[in-house]
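Researcher: Please translate sequence to structure tokens.
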Amino acid sequence: IEYKSGKYPFTANSRSRCNGDTDGFVKILADATTDKVLGCHIIGAQAGDLIQEVVNVMEFGGSAEDIGRICHGHPGLPESVKEAALNVDGRALHI
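Model: Translation complete:
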């Protein structure tokens, strides 16, 4: 399967910086043709909570674009998931 990936470091996330939890990242893997989310790696603070959004999108056959279009509160760690999804196509906003 050909895939593309988007990665976003916690060092670029404002909530992570405020909390002093800047070690880690979110990485999303998507099908190179369809953009369907194939998987996700999350290393760092609250990874167990952050993965839920990606799992839900995968369950319904969603794309990285779908995650990128979801509204996320600011400042918050979940923004890292959105930014990684946008970065699948090189469109992260805050990096």
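Researcher: Any highlights?
Model: Residues 72 and 79 are 6 Å apart (CA to CA).
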